[in-house]
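Handout, page 2. Input:
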Amino acid sequence: MTSWRRVDPAYISTGFARAIALLGTAMGVIFAVVASIGTVSWFVNGEPNPLPFLPAAATPIWVVALLSQRSSGLYVSEQAVRVVNLTTTRTIPWSQVSDIVTEPAMVRSRRVAEDAVVLRLTDGTRVNTQVRSAVAFDALREMHASLG
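Output:
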């Protein structure tokens, strides 16, 4: 059985993760305020009013997105490197990795402030990891050098 080790820090490091965390916090505050108002309104008027509880319907979606983002990252084993993103997981044998570099991170064809770790494969393709961590870059380079 292959033992995977995470090489990038597991903290909120990307703009998307920060936005999800901020959105979730805002939703929680809004839900608490609106639910309180709705509860008071429910008891004052004596009529059920489900509208204030609608933000609760988005909570499971937010939790899934946050947990998915939390598990996204770079994982390594003796045999391969695994790139886990929000919707995909790609496992690449070390024998197919020709180089590990940093390149400007691109989001919708726009450069962002930080560089991302990119895997260059032996067939010429590039795998953008979306990981923006010097710690991950150094760990991957060291692992790649020790195996090859």
